[in-house]
Design brief:
A 5-stranded mixed beta sheet has the order 5-4-1-6-12. It has a 5-stranded mixed barrel with strand order 8-11-9-10-13. The chain has a two-stranded antiparallel sheet with strand order 2-3. By secondary structure, the protein is an alpha/beta fold. The chain is built from 11 helices and 14 strands. A hairpin with a 2-residue loop joins β9 and β10.
């Protein structure tokens, strides 16, 4: 039986971005630019190129500029660009609102990465979907989402993209998975532990860049919510562990030809800007010359 197509995605974008204050006091961290496009637009374009049609962005009260960015171009800006004979910029800007069908949901419920998923249950229905974050930037070929969808279409399982951790401190930053390798780089998960620390980590394989989830995850999230202790984060990992215990297949795989950037981190954000600028044909030559001047 052919698996259902993956047409929908959720982007979690309700966080405060405290690591970038005071910049993020008024500007959402998801709108920080990588050269001339905000981070979240790169994520949206990557989703669309992988076949996603409907994108739900889960936001908070301070994220209106995200909605404005993906809205139709205003008459004032359209007129200004036309009068300035900036037709190419006009066309690029007009395309933004046509990238996908956008829906915005205000996050409500306990703090944690599981809440945005339940907030969108009525929009996802019984379809598989991608759940990702607007500050997890991955430069990969094929894209991470294309790799995730390909593995799902082959297996029908939920899928988690992963990287090998090389720094001890990173074990305190990511969810770490363990399981049995079924094929090269593909692991049938036996567990996932959120931020375990190096000493308690079940492996060195960390989940980054989101999840491709089958709709049965909703029932596991509903079951885990009543037992949430006051003041604790509502995380997706316990629901995944229960799903695995029930015999459901969840696969982790090592991303191929990929470079991961945590753009919620200042240094990683700067590295991302530099690397993206060096990939631009209109900027790379002059920018590389400038960088060489700095180190000579």
């Amino acid at each position: 039986m052919q698996n259902k197509p993956v047409r929908k995605a959720i982007i979690a974008a309700a966080g405060f971005g405290t690591r970038f204050l005071p910049q993020t006091k008024a500007l959402p961290k998801e709108m920080l630019p990588l050269v001339d496009k905000p981070i979240i637009q790169y994520i949206v374009e990557e989703l669309v190129s992988a076949g996603i049609e409907d994108i739900v962005i889960v936001t908070g009260y301070h994220k209106r500029s995200i909605e404005d960015h993906f809205d139709y171009i205003s008459a004032d800006l359209r007129s200004n660009l036309k009068q300035g004979n900036k037709e190419q910029l006009l066309e690029e800007t007009k395309k933004i609102s046509d990238l996908a069908n956008f829906v915005y949901v205000r996050q409500k419920g306990p703090y944690g990465n599981a809440t945005p998923i339940l907030n969108c249950e009525h929009l996802i229905g019984d379809e598989p979907f991608i759940y990702t974050y607007a500050d997890d930037f991955i430069d990969a070929e094929p894209s991470r989402f294309a790799q995730m969808i390909a593995l799902y279409q082959e297996t029908g399982a939920s899928v988690l993209p992963c990287i090998e951790l090389t720094n001890d401190e990173d074990y305190d930053r990511y969810g770490v998975v363990a399981g049995e390798e079924q094929a090269e780089g593909i692991i049938r998960m036996s567990t996932i532990v959120e931020k375990p620390g190096k000493q308690d980590a079940p492996s060195s394989l960390a989940n980054v860049g989101g999840y491709l989830l089958t709709p049965d995850i909703f029932s596991y999230l509903h079951d885990s919510l009543p037992s949430l202790e006051e003041g604790k984060e509502f995380q997706i990992q316990p629901a995944m562990r229960e799903s695995i215990k029930d015999g459901n297949q969840i696969l982790a795989f090592k991303l191929r030809n990929a470079r991961y950037y945590d753009t919620g981190n200042k240094l990683e954000y700067l590295k991302t800007v530099v690397d993206m600028a060096l990939k631009r044909p209109d900027l790379s030559k002059d920018f590389m010359a400038y960088l060489r001047q700095l180190v000579e």
